[in-house]
Amino acid sequence: METRFCYRKNHFSRTADGLKVTPKEHEYIFKTQLKPKKTGLMLVGIGGNNGSTSVGAIFANKKHMTWRTKEGIQTANYFGSVTQSSTIHLGWDGQQQIHVPFNEIIPILSPNDLIIDGWDINNANLYQAMIRAKVFEPELQEKLRPYMEPIVPMPSIYYPDFIAANQGDRANNTIPGTDKKEHLEHIRRDIRNFKAKHDLECVIVLWTANTERYTDVVDGLNMTAEQILASVDASADEISPSNIFAIAAILEGAHYINGSPQNTLVPGIIDLAHKHNVFVGGDDFKSGQTKIKSALVDFMVNSGLKPESIVSYNHLGNNDGKNLSEARQFRSKEISKSSVVDDMVEANKILYPTGQKPDHCIVIKYVPFVGDSKRAMDEYICSIFMGGRQTFVIHNTCEDSLLATPLIYDLAILTELATRIRYADANDGEFRPFHEVLSILSLLLKAPVVPPGTPVSNAFMRQFASLTKLITTLAGIAADTDMQIEFFTKLPKAN
Amino acid sequence: METRFCYRKNHFSRTADGLKVTPKEHEYIFKTQLKPKKTGLMLVGIGGNNGSTSVGAIFANKKHMTWRTKEGIQTANYFGSVTQSSTIHLGWDGQQQIHVPFNEIIPILSPNDLIIDGWDINNANLYQAMIRAKVFEPELQEKLRPYMEPIVPMPSIYYPDFIAANQGDRANNTIPGTDKKEHLEHIRRDIRNFKAKHDLECVIVLWTANTERYTDVVDGLNMTAEQILASVDASADEISPSNIFAIAAILEGAHYINGSPQNTLVPGIIDLAHKHNVFVGGDDFKSGQTKIKSALVDFMVNSGLKPESIVSYNHLGNNDGKNLSEARQFRSKEISKSSVVDDMVEANKILYPTGQKPDHCIVIKYVPFVGDSKRAMDEYICSIFMGGRQTFVIHNTCEDSLLATPLIYDLAILTELATRIRYADANDGEFRPFHEVLSILSLLLKAPVVPPGTPVSNAFMRQFASLTKLITTLAGIAADTDMQIEFFTKLPKAN
Amino acid sequence: METRFCYRKNHFSRTADGLKVTPKEHEYIFKTQLKPKKTGLMLVGIGGNNGSTSVGAIFANKKHMTWRTKEGIQTANYFGSVTQSSTIHLGWDGQQQIHVPFNEIIPILSPNDLIIDGWDINNANLYQAMIRAKVFEPELQEKLRPYMEPIVPMPSIYYPDFIAANQGDRANNTIPGTDKKEHLEHIRRDIRNFKAKHDLECVIVLWTANTERYTDVVDGLNMTAEQILASVDASADEISPSNIFAIAAILEGAHYINGSPQNTLVPGIIDLAHKHNVFVGGDDFKSGQTKIKSALVDFMVNSGLKPESIVSYNHLGNNDGKNLSEARQFRSKEISKSSVVDDMVEANKILYPTGQKPDHCIVIKYVPFVGDSKRAMDEYICSIFMGGRQTFVIHNTCEDSLLATPLIYDLAILTELATRIRYADANDGEFRPFHEVLSILSLLLKAPVVPPGTPVSNAFMRQFASLTKLITTLAGIAADTDMQIEFFTKLPKAN
Amino acid sequence: METRFCYRKNHFSRTADGLKVTPKEHEYIFKTQLKPKKTGLMLVGIGGNNGSTSVGAIFANKKHMTWRTKEGIQTANYFGSVTQSSTIHLGWDGQQQIHVPFNEIIPILSPNDLIIDGWDINNANLYQAMIRAKVFEPELQEKLRPYMEPIVPMPSIYYPDFIAANQGDRANNTIPGTDKKEHLEHIRRDIRNFKAKHDLECVIVLWTANTERYTDVVDGLNMTAEQILASVDASADEISPSNIFAIAAILEGAHYINGSPQNTLVPGIIDLAHKHNVFVGGDDFKSGQTKIKSALVDFMVNSGLKPESIVSYNHLGNNDGKNLSEARQFRSKEISKSSVVDDMVEANKILYPTGQKPDHCIVIKYVPFVGDSKRAMDEYICSIFMGGRQTFVIHNTCEDSLLATPLIYDLAILTELATRIRYADANDGEFRPFHEVLSILSLLLKAPVVPPGTPVSNAFMRQFASLTKLITTLAGIAADTDMQIEFFTKLPKAN
After folding, report:
1. At how many degrees (to 10) do helices A241-251 and A225-233 cross?
2. Are the beta carbons of C254 and C205 closer than 8 angstroms?
3. pTM of the prediction?
4. Lowest CB count within 10 Å: A164, B53, B297, C161, which one?
5. Exposed, middle or buried by CB within 10 Å (0-12, 13-18, 19+), for D375?
6. What distance in Å separates the CA atoms of residue C239 and residue C223, rounded to the nearest whole number?
7. Looking at CA atoms only, how far is residue B437 from chain C in angstroms?
8. Which candidate in A374, A378, A400, A410 is catalytic?
9. Residues 6 or more apart from A423 whose CB is under 8 A from it?
10. Residues D221 and D195 in one domain
């Protein structure tokens, strides 16, 4: 399918009189292969809460499972997945607004189509993992048992320096030895076998395992593809497990997505992805407190209200929380959660004259009793008109894995879609794939990695608009639905 | 200034195979008179909290007033006004995102330019009114005293049947008699005098007085311009004070905006506005709980989360709260607050199969102690993935008048702008004004009145996008900034 | 068992110099029959949420049931019952504080000992009722099924004028006819049969059915025992179903407790109880929002902080909420919830000079989605030192029936205990039972009915101290544990 | 004034059959000197928020100051002071409950009687300090200026190792040198001069300065009076500024109270206090989050509800918050806040079988924007009946200094009272003062220091009962008001 799109874009120059804005139009051609590829998803940390929930929910949906809760009969669903449960506004038919399901605009995979396998440092089978996760109701756990019990995670890589010491007990399913080159080969072999076994056209490796500490980013270590491969060969200390997985994926032609906050995607890995024509994306699922923050702060700033203080407390009791209770791992998380308002603050120099920023504070605590039922408690204080203050206090019960898992599907589904798209500038007609850093995933990520030199956009509704506009453009039906000129004018409204 | 805009719009037809979508382009031409008009704003209820705050804040801003608070020196500002404190994203200059203040895109009025006068059923001068309002700090009150004390509201119309009985004590500044025709003439004279005295090009009458009960809407009474004029002549019981003000405004060529929830804008009044080529807009300032709800629910539904229960409690202690403590007045408010999620619910048939709606409950209580410092307490419960639930609990301290007053300015400023715009379909080239029901004000209103047969859109970020897209279109610099294709492609990013 | 207690009490006289306080001592003798009686508990509304939960939980505890939840294995318990789960502080043994379970001080019944039956206007058996209630987890429901399914409520009395119209559908199990005298006889027969069938020594009838509207309290109707019996004979309109149940109980020598807010215990019924030597108690279980309010406000006032505004919102989705969605039934509830801070306010004339009271507002809304999981949202604002304000905002997820049911057991258990107590003034040695209005139940009731002329005390911790002091007094081991002189003095601390 | 009190106390022995409880009575004689002493209060940290607020509020109260706020005219008061604003229940006079102001039972000082001076490491005068504190309204600040400006703190002791590095800038008013012995002499001289200048009978030194890190408690350093004096002579590193102040106070016969959480009151200092017959008390004002926690958890546990998880977040922006943003200082605070529920948990072995404790987590963050307006956000989750859960979420806006300052007065007033009390066991008649560790201050302190071997009681209402019982006992009018036998019996109620 080939579509043309006339992209309106302003060009800027600064003159003595100030900013000069010149509107221009660029014509793009998009070519989208319509048939989704047979796709495999390999989860690092498949035995964790997200991992077992991802796998279980697909079985539950495929088998149309239902289960009793005290509130009544519950049915499997894909709520919280943008690709499966959102709709896109296409326009007005003269009678009503037309909204079409996201997954009916252009052909994309369903989570049900994904073939899943993965690694974990713990050897519990997925039935045991699911019980440990405390996410599904008991009756559902039992209905899933025959499907989940046979699945045992492949051994994973465990370098204790990168995750919290309290994870040591869990690490009973690890690839032996200390030679990182061998570990890389092991993982590459796992990917090759998986691909061959299922005859896959597309493989995506996605990290949903423990948050690692940050690694150093220094020349000689990991600034280029060559450097990082050499560092693996040398079993360099700063090569993390997630580095190994990302490199293995790329070398096998698989795409790599980082669902945790650590800085896996160092320049050397992005360079490697570029050379191997695969996508990388990250960091950190945007599912709960940060997601709503990225919508709320945008709302406030656009309303002309000035957030002065944003205090975000969290506590959770699952293994993610346990791992984050050590300082270095928390630090990774703190970084990914902190930058989320920066672009919105910088967008408004009336409220925030250069150099001003709101107080912004992030806390995560491990509270075993709450389990996977993560609690986010936020206080936003805005300066409003004439020195007044508006204070928002929010208590948000975010079921951690139930919010994150749909994002895993969406990340995989959008990545697969991206592999089918080529675009060209109409002037030269040369078709290319998207940039290897796949920024269309930003909607789903707390601290989006973007192509070097391009801006990060965190505002949820803007990200959503960007993604849906792309989807309708690919389908050749992009419309200026946000403008709705027809409703405030007196032109005939007939179709 | 004349600009052309190619508006992309989908046309729809239903076939045996389902919905057929055909993209089309319409070319519009916009002509905007660049020089803002000298504009007068007449407030009904100028002695109320919003009224005295509106007037006082303009003096404070014009005179660059500062005042001490325990936190330090405070400066007058226009935070919370979209036209004065928001920025619009124009694009990327290769280095950074370009955001320009809303009021620098095309020439619009500043609140400082507005000439204000108004009516009130109470005769307190605006210094007394300001003290009664409990909105400004004492030091600011004293600095404003010389400007506020001389302003005394013009006598207003008081029909006890329309507002709460507890307002009776306040009604000491009313136009005598019971002949509604005479009242209409009295108000028309006030408008004429005001216009003449200040030599105004544009007058806007804005209701920020007590919420009235709903009036009946029945044929013979108020369905056409003729009917409603006849009903005024007959002093019909169902002609409310706000009807009189709206009719007086329209007959004097002034625009009329309803900042309260009652149904002033009955078909007869819209018809009258149409005949007199003036704008009407309403209903009910969207400033606090409902405003954030219109952003949050849109965020949730677009995230694929399903709001199942939305419970919105409010309490306040100012005179608005006192008036709303009677059932019929509360009912008007309840209606305007209730419809706000309807369009978002209808937009998603995956989450809400036909006929489903969330439980939605609105409560407003009068609690004198909190004064103007309105408290909104909300609980949102969403069904999420696999039967889980996400619960958001929000306590929102909304300073009532400090949030509403900037909207009063914005409503007036955007209305004045609208009077300067003509548009044409490029095919016929005939220039027309906007529809007399001014739906570009929707961003600022809880229950937007829209032209008959057109859809209501309540989602804040969509409304904001719609408005800012119009503004850039008028300026000839509309861009597809929401799409940001340039950042996920590999095209040269140079300017 | 007989114990003596020297009760320290101040006597007061007012003189020209002010209040004169004279300490006096009264010696009391308490005689407690140690063996608990075989006791039956008859619930009005046994098919409601509280009813089915009460019955089910006793089976679950007796059978030591366990069930799986996603968090793990759950065991039946009696948490939330003061008699079963609280401890009483007896003193210090030189090493540690000695706290003994409440039910080990003097012999009292266990909930497991109660024999339960009851009436309901709906004919669902208790298994169906339990499913409808949405209180227990599905696995527990199934384990209880064999015990619950055979239990079918006896037909009850339904006078539509007293409860909400929306209860009409539910009323399919009612005693026919309109002759209230016959209804009384029918219920008396039910009580007699129950007593005989189980060979009971003590029967308690407890209303846990729908909240009724208030009845008139007027001379000629219900001011004396004779009047109210005559009114029943005459099938007077103002004789409510709960009146009939109370009268039937009293005439059969059974004690009557009102767990709902309506004014069942009119003077005529108290008079009748007096004449028949049975206890009556009420009104309205104190289980959630009001319970914590009665602790918090006492805490605040004793801290010298002045609550100025107390706003209490509630919503729930069970049948209680549905019934309360009509105005007259809500009004009963509003009254019982409103008076709870009055005694604390009156206790402090420094904070509240005569005539001052805080703003206090109560709202209950019916929100079906939340079911039995009642939500209470409160805002307390206190004036503090030097004009400052402390604001407490509370969101309280109170599982409605899980909080109320333990109170049902406690009410029955304490009532049975009261039947075994006689006391005498040591001066005359004449032993008497407690007053027929059983005020020792106050801890468990929102609006305690007390003997005429005696004060109501709502402060939770004071009520708790009062009850536990009585229990230790009966056991002959009352101590001044609250004073703890031994710890700030230097006397030898040895035992 | 001399009063006798028969104290009921249980004695315990453990037998084969279990615990044996034997009630006993001890007769005590209390002798209270009725005339309060002329008392001086010396604040360490007088230039901090609490310090300047304490001094300013006394002037405001003495001069009956009023000031305008936007809500109206505000009057100086002592709300939040138990001694000045609480009442004590004395009994029932047949008509109504008799509550008498705390300060009318026995003669005690008023804050107005206190003569205040103090030290600070910063040389701002108290007018400047008051502005910096952001506690009082501007108009009040100006009214206080003539009284506050002349007061300049005496130079204080600054050992950078004990407080946060960020306090370095503030330290411009310090006693020179590094010889701790000389510092001790300097402070002793300050105390002597103050006492002589004002001809005082009683001096109290109270630490309301920065939280220090914990010091080591080791033999040879500070386990006895001799050791700690020798350590001062040797200028030992582990001798903190607060140690010096405490020792100086004791050696000058002044009482010492620690309002911060650090462990100033090491065994050597308590020993020294014993030898010099002065009182010491601490630690850490109980004013906000912890105070309400100590009431709430007691309420929950006594209700038979089981707190399983208590998560307490705080943020504040004053200098206390800034100092606590370093780890060692926060650690002191964390300890004092953590132990507060321990006694309540240990009191109930039904809910908490041996070894069980709730998850309990404390966080304090420095958020400059909120200033002195401290925010506490708590989540309590209780296991309730049959595996249910009750969740309380609290947002508590606690004005930090406005809550703490009244406690400073109360601590001083109660300490002065304690100096006037002697008690004797009636058996030997030998009169003694209270223990040198003044545990009657516990009500006001987060982590009460108690005499060795005695239990800590944190439950607010129990502490309140203990204190008020003592006060009425001293006045000879102690009554069993908590029991209220007269209301559930049928004895004559006449006076």
Report:
1. 120
2. yes
3. 0.95
4. C161
5. buried
6. 12
7. 36
8. A374
9. A28, A29, A30, A31, A431, A432, A434, B489
10. yes
Give the ipTM: 0.94
Which chain D residues are closer than 8 Å to A367 by Cβ? 309, 311, 359, 361
Where a domain ends, among A397, A417, A433?
A397
User: Is residue C259 included in any domain, yes or no?
Assistant: yes
Residues A446 and A339 in one domain: no
For chain A, the domain total comes to 2
How far apart, in whole angstroms, are the C-alpha atoms of residue B326 and residue C324?
A: 20
> C98 and chain D: CB distance < 8 Å anywhere?
yes
Contact by Cβ (8 Å): B49, B130: no
Residue A483 lies in a domain: no
Q: Tens digits of per-residue pLDDT, A338-383?
A: 788 888 899 999 999 988 999 999 999 999 999 999 999 999 999 9
CA atoms of A212 and B372, how far apart (whole Å): 49
Shared domain for B216 and B258, answered yes or no, is yes
Residue D483 lies in a domain: no
> Phi and psi dihedrals of A439, rounded to 5?
-80, -5
For residues B134 and B271, state if they share a domain.
Answer: yes
Greatest Cα pair distance in chain B: 75
Q: Does A87 touch chain B (CB under 8 A)?
A: yes
SS3 C36: coil
The CA distance from B346 to B351, in Å, is 9
**Cβ-defined contact of B139 to D138 (cutoff 8 Å):** yes
How big is chain B, counted in residues?
Answer: 495
- Integer Cα distance of C431 and D40 in angstroms: 57
- CA–CA gap between residue D94 and residue D86 (Å, rounded): 23
Same-domain check for residues C109 and C187: yes
Q: How far is CA A384 from CA B78, B457, C93, D112, in A?
A: 8, 25, 60, 39
D103 found inside a domain: yes
pLDDT digits (tens, 9 = 90+) for A192-209: 999 999 999 999 999 999
Q: What is the average per-residue pLDDT within D361-376?
A: 94
Q: Are residues D388 and D419 in the same domain?
A: no
* Residue C315: CATH number of its domain: 3.30.360.10
Indicate whether D92 and D201 sit together in one domain: yes
- Classify residue C476 as left (phi > 0), alpha (psi -120 to 50) or beta: left
Point out the domain boundary residue: D340, D362, D397. Answer: D397
Cα-Cα-Cα-Cα dihedral sign, residues A445, A449, A454, A456? positive
pLDDT confidence of residue C237: 96
CATH number of the domain enclosing A267: 3.40.50.720
For A224, the domain range is 39-285+402-475
CB D348 within 8 A of CB A348: no
Radius of gyration of chain C, Cα coordinates, nearest whole angstrom = 23
Using an 8 Å CB-CB cutoff, list chain B residues near D393. 393
Per-residue model confidence as pLDDT tens digits over D390-448? 999 999 999 999 999 999 999 999 999 999 999 998 888 889 999 999 989 999 999 99
Alpha-carbon dihedral sign for residues C153, C158, C162, C163:
positive
Quote the CA–CA distance of C488 and A25 in Å, as a whole number.
Answer: 85
| D127 chain-B contacts, CB cut-off 8 A | none
Residues B387 and B412 in one domain: no
Q: What is the pLDDT of residues B403-442, one digit of tens each?
A: 999 999 999 999 999 999 999 988 888 899 999 999 899 9
Which of A375, A386, A389 would you mutate first to test chain D, the one with the most D CBs within 10 A?
Answer: A375
Residue window 219-258, chain A: list those with CB within 8 Å of chain B.
none
How far is residue B486's CA from residue B479's CA, in Å, rounded to a whole number?
Answer: 13
Distance of CA D475 to the CA centre of its chain: 23
- Sheet containing strand C2-15, strands side by side: C2-15, C18-32, C421-425
Decide: C111 and C413 in contact? Cβ < 8 Å: yes
